[in-house]
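Standup notes
- DV: blocked on the single-chain target, sequence here:
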Amino acid sequence: MHSPSSQILMRKGKRGAAVYIQAECSRTTDPQHLKELLSTLLNPQKPIEELETVDWIKWLIAGGKTPVEFASIVRRYDNGTTCGLVWTANFVAYRCRTCGISPCMSLCAECFQKGNHEGHDFNMFRSQAGGACDCGDTSVMKEAGFCERHGPHAHVGKPILPPELLAVSQAVMPLIILRLIQHLRSHSIPDILEDQLQSVQDADCFITMLHDYSGMGAAMRHVMTSALISPQLYAQLTEVPSGDSEYAQFMKEAQRMYEKSLESLPGPEPPDEYKAYPALQDSLVHRTFLEELVFWTVKFEFPQKLVCLLLNMLPDPDYKEAFTRAFVLHYARISRLLVGSSDPDTLSNRVVHVSVQLFSNEELATKMAEELHLLHVMVVSLRDMMSKILVPSTLQDPKKNFHFVVDCSKHVMRDHCYWPLVSDLSNLLSHRPVALLFLSDDSLLEMWFSFLSMFQGMNVNQRELSTHVEFEPNTYYAAFSAELEAPASAMWALAIHLRDTGSIHLTKMLLKHCLAALEEWLEAINFKSPDQTDPYQVSFHIPLHRYLAAFTCQAVRAQGILLKDALPPASLLQLIMMHPLRIQAAFYEILSGLWVRNGLQIKGQAMSYIQCHFGNSMVDADIYLLQICATQLSPTLVLPTIFERFHVMELLSMNPLLKSNFLEGEQESTMLESCLTFIASLMSIRTNIGANESDLDRLEMVSLLCMSDRTHSQLMELLPEKCGAPQNKDFDAILAQVADYKAPNFEASGSMQQGMYVPKAVVWEQLYDPVYVLLRAVHRRDFQTSMDRFTQYVRQSGKYPNYSSGTLWPPFRLPIATHLNYEDPRKVLLSRTFHAILFVLLYKATHSPSLVSEQSLALVIYLLDMAVSLVHQSKTQGNEVCIREPIIHLPDDRVDLQLNDWFSTDSLAENVITVVNNVTLTTSTAVTVNSTEAAELDLESSASSTSSTSEGESSDQDMDLDVPEVSGANILLALPETDSQALVPVVSSRPGTSSDMATVSVYRNPSRIGNSSHFRVMPALSAVGQASMVIAGAISPTATLPQLAYPNIRAITSGNEVTKYTSQISVDSNLSDASPGTIQYEEVTESDNQRERLCVRESIVSLLLRLHSSFNGHSDSYRLPDNSNQGSDIASESGATAEEDGRIGNSSFWIGKVLDKLSRTDLRVRQSIISTKQTLWPPRTAEDSLPSETADELREKEKKRKIKERQQRLLQEFATKQKQFMQQAMAAEDVEMDLEANSVGPTSTTTPSAETTTYQGSGLANLISNPASAADPSSAHSTYSASNEEHNLEEYDCVICNQASPSTSDRPMCLVVLLQATSVLAHKRYWPSGSSLALPVCEEDRFNLDKVDSLHVEMNRRVENLRQHFDESSWLTSLNIGYEGGVYVHTCGHYLHLDCHKQYLQSLRSQQRQQSLNVERGEYSCPLCRQLANSALPIATKLYGAKGGRSNEATRMVPCLNQASEEVKNMLGAEPAISPHLGSNLMEAMGRVMEDMTNATFPRFRQITSTPSPASLFLFVQSIARTNLEIELMQRNDSIIQSSGLTMGSSGVNCSSVSNVTSSMHGQAIGESSPTPGTSSASWISPGLELRFSSSPTPSGSSMGSSSQAMSHSTSPWSLLPKRSCLLPLLHVLATHSKILSTRTHQHIWSRTAGLDIGESFGRSLANTSEMEVPLLIQDVPCLLIQMVLILPLPLEQRHFVCLLQRFFNLTMVQIIVQLSCRLGEKKRALYKTVSLSDWNIAALMSFVISNMEDAHLYREDDIDIGFNENKMLNVEGDIHQPLYKMALHFLRIASLLQFHLFGDALPSSGISHTDHEEFVELCSYLNISYEMKFDSCLAPNAIIGHWCHELRKFLGNSRNLLAAKDLLMQHREWRGPRLLTLPNSYDTLFKFYHHKSCPQCNSVPKEPSLCLVCGALVCLRENCCKEENIHEAVQHSIDCGAGTAIFLAINSSTIIVIRGKRACLWGSVYLDAFGEEDRELKRGKPLYLSKERYALLQSQWLSHRFDHTSKKWIWHRDVL
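- DV (later): unblocked, structure below
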């Protein structure tokens, strides 16, 4: 019910009522009339969306003013100090890291642009989740970055707010908010989100009103916030009234719904001790409107409008704290909401949109943590979220595992529902006070580690052993993301604050809880022994281990805690070590292919594990923990454990039959290499135990650069990141130290290079660390790439001539020193266990290279190198790493695999010289053989495996198995008690190894190997040896002998003793290369177990010496260094700096380097090396040195030599043929395809001589089919002569059938061509100023651009004038169309038969999918060069037959002009000569290509009359010729004469550089400021590519010489001309159809032009000229010339062509004179009339024209003579000559091009700079026409010209024709060539103007505004608003502006979008940042600047019509752009 007072007020109207209410509110604080009126307006029974209600409220609050006036007044009193502008997703904002205090700071565009950020580190970004402007907030950013409107002092000087201004607002605002709350309550039931969101949408106008009031400034915001945070107002207004009124009933029902909604949003179940916390209580109690509004915001899943409303008022400090409290009170409910949401991604963004604004303030965040226990709320919420998705862990034994982990397949993990909570937690922990609160709370830490335990061991992978996994799970990325976002981000946020000694107690507390959680986890999974590790499963997720690693590292390095105080006991540490070690082993297993049956996802896990975003938190932490374990646990435990976990322990056995049960085949070698790689990483990496931040950043940067050249942004992105850690400020300084900047390469292809950083030489020489690159290489091929790049540098630098070939070993680096609190992990390398492992691996590398690859050997040598370096380092520091133990004489035997007992000391110097005599094998190697099988041993198999025996060897056939000695070798057999003998073979497999022993192979049957036998055969480790080995034993009657090869190892001792020192080594004087020592193998019985003894007798030194000789290829290759510098050498090796001087070399270098260092370690080692060398390679006597080869051996050597020579010859022949083939292929390859190659720099090219540049038929075809003729000048000349005589024998190579044949009527040959519509010529512009046209960046620019005339506007105006005043049949032949929507014909130069073309298209149509071709429209790819084509242009050989060059009779043509004119007239009067081939396949091909040309353009461009007619069709046909000629002229930069003698053939390249092409684009030559992109010789000047259309040979010597000069010049890669022209065959096709379509005779036009009908009575002549005919003086002369050429019979004689040129030149001159006469003033015209006509010169012609035209009303009497002085003579030069030369040039250039293509005359060239007059004279000379007008001798010029003037006077006789006539007369204008609009240098200029600019079509702001770079139009890309007939605006504009071609700049992404027909592509960007990089989509937001070179390239591709060839990634746009 309306109260009476409210009705009275409403009758007053809105303004009247507002005035009354304003007065009442000014008098009292309790306005009753207002309350009654509002009770009516805000009645909750009424719909809230009523606009009338909102309008009433606005007027009431305005207090008698209009709402707009009120808002303006209130803003004057805005004294706010902060901006607070709130935005949503996709808003463009700025972030300045220089000004920011918080990393989350952001600024709106207005505040950023008004602030001073010059030189700052800022970027523009597109907001992902929304945000708010922080300008003015001193807690978030520095005051220096504030704009002038915000900041602490911004309110100074602002007027004081009048209290009455907002009196009504204060009274109304609480009721407005109440109405909103009532609406939300009443629509909360039913609890359906869609309905609830609809209710918010219904209140949109109401909420918008509140937004508007909030935007009025701080004063109005204060009114709103006061109402929102007042508990009294809330209690008063929400109280349910008593009674049964409608309002009371509504309030009761609303209260019920509200309470039910409260119950529907429960919070998590907290621990008992936290239940009293306000935010964790079971029920919510709201005390203010704000708290309830926050509740509804949460309940309705954060509606965007409500969120923005709440955030808009944050600048009010009281409100901000109240809002934060309200948000925290509801925070625990948000976790439940995220889990249950149907769109968690959107909800997460909106939650973070709010929380980041609240928790970024340190003071406020600390207050919430202290008072409302925000940290506890967050952790409880996270635990509650994850507890819902826990599943039993399957790690280890699932039956004994009681641990629960998160299920990564649940949507909570997949959709990252936890992300807002962990993001907020990390934000909170970035504040030091909050982090310290977190660390000091025991219960909170315990709960946190309980939460982390839920991730420990998640996503377990079980290795598939039998079949490939059927379904590959995609959960791994969810697991990696979860660990990074939850545990890792909080870990790094906490670690930042633990950097001083004052927080040591907090670190220790955290480590205590971490260890407790780890112990609890180990117990839960029942992991009590290291042996329990399951080798068939792995989880990459162990966050508890990584917490232990990270905070232990922080404690030791930053806080000085002793390592032993931070670590658990050794027993627990050993258990802790096992799972990180298992991950490392599994990682290498995956790379080695052991997990291949698990699918690609397991490889994805391995890559993610080391990927830059995860690596710092995962792999680095794991390696650090393992390094700690390696230094704290015994090496006797660590090393065997590592080898066992990598499954290669069996490979350390000396028993070759002992195989790994876990590995198969090649897996053994790869896993051994992996194990050694891991150990090397463990020893050398100093990421967390030694390197500082600067060193680490340098190393990371170097590793990235070594794998590939990188852009600046790639380096920034790929550097491993610590979550929350600040970016290194020295990034650019470090980058400058290690890399050089390489400017972008600008190529003519579509793919363009960006600015890259390439490593400096110092990187390869000193910094490249292969081990670290392996750690960071996500793909193993990246490491191989780095090695290839390293090798390339070494070979190209010239500093290492010894390594110009061969394989280089990786340049392993010595690690830097560790931190003082850490032990060096390399101490493991100084253990006896490692030395035993080292011995075994070197032994196998020497004698069994197949088991130890060269890569593994390199790692072994590297480990030894590190060990020796550590010894030297310790000596220089005055302490010994290993205390020397007393000599202990070990037993002779070492027990196999008991490596800890092989040596008695840890001293490296002693162990490397200790000789290991025998090894007792604990596992049997026995196989049984019987005597029969032993006798049948196949002795031939060894011979088959090697081509011949080496020097000193005897053949297998010479061996006698029955005697101990064999001819040619001395194999000593140890005979046991029985008479049985066994032979053990020797096989040489190491390249370059010298072997003196015979090679014998034996046959083995593996299935018959027994475990017990009297006869034991020691199988081979393989390959290399110089001494024999004998195995003694008995032969069993049933035994079988396997095929084994055992090495013949020469022992370095002659007894069985174990020798400790070199002085104790006994050397057998009989040992020599011919008489090797023996190693004995015996059978040993121990406790009933038979064990075998391997006789070894080697030391580490002897093995190194053998390896050195093996790799060098000759014996005794190692040379000891000079001993005199030993002391200084040892001192120099104390640090890495001196040692790093020589780390580049091959295998011999590295082994020699280690031997050198060992020799310096101890004198005993040096003596041992000398003794061992003498033992292995005793000095030869003079007799021994003499050659002792037998005749057979000499024959064998000769045979080898001949075979090698034969191989060399064959290889040379093959290389020669390959080279010839490549040369031909390169000549055949099309230049357009070559453009895709990356150009490096300009290349000079040697071109063929003139004779070789002219070929018969297709130059390309002849290069392929007859390379001899291409190379032989005489051959080329004879070919040409034959062509002149028998032109029909000309042959072309079909690229489909590869047959060479002539083009005949029955089987014509065709050119592969691409037909495309073009409007490039339409964008020629006429403007007087010399500056180029710019893309508008302000309204004034747009106005100026619109005033500029373009050619298509002029042509349309001309067509309309002609259409109005002349007969259609006449005016259609008086001009050309095609400037807009013309057809351009482009060829790649390849040929095919017409029938082959048909079959090719048919095969394409039969294919099911053609993604990139529209075959139905005739599209196909050239079968040879793959360029796009859509038609085939037939070759008519008749066209070329009678064609010759410029004949010697050319100069005698002038007297024959009279006769030629008559002949031309007669030919025109005759019936058109229809081809005799009518109906043939040739004519069919011509008809088809004509049809294709018709369909190539749009109907409106090919038909300008209402109905088609023969005349209109003829106009279209002859306009195609004009279009192609004009485009070629444009591509030649409107210049026919080439400078520097650059004369091309008809397919020659335009020599004008890109600077000439685009000089007008920027006002300067671009080439001057930027390097010209390079090109390869094959791309631009390859033979055959520069030839003109080769069916028109040029016989004249001068012509050929010009062509040769052109070929020798390196042209620009951005030349606009195509490399081959097809104009000649095109003219023939057009001529054939012109003759058919020509319905009126051209004889009459020719007679009028040549004056041939002047001899008749003048009156009759005039009578023949109809008034509706177009006068000659306003006809387009080049159009007439082209018509005549097409109508006359072809081939055209040159004298007829010269006659045509001279007559049309006369007409052109008169046209220009008439046009110039109109420019003269009245006085000048009068003066010119006085010129005598006796001398028929230019001045006389002007006089004659003025006299004839002055009575035709052509001249105005008020014309003013500029600069005329009556006292001076006429300036004929300035008035006539100069403009005449300029205007006549266009006709002369078109005529020159026609002559060039028709007759093959080389274009004129000159080395001087041309003026218009010089070019005019030279072109006239080239065309053989007079410089002045010349008529037939029998005709008077005044009669002909008078006739022409009379035609024009007749037209001018009608006054209505006067304006049209003047317009038509002014056709000779200087049009500037088409150019793209000039762009501003800074992209920000464009972005500011167009980002929010409205579309002129739909008047809305486009989501993707795009600018046409041709005309400057703004279009809505991909939007429906401007769509017409289902064609979107951008596509339609491409038709209107470019006939299907358009170039758009997308403003919001900075990319260029090219539309070509039905396709579109992303071309790239012409704006680059300071580092030469694109920023597509503006993701990085760095300032962008115009790349003039790229823009020039874009323009050149547009002008040359090459988009189809240069851009490759096309898509079908389907008219939706």
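- Follow-up: The first strand starts at residue 86 and ends at 87.
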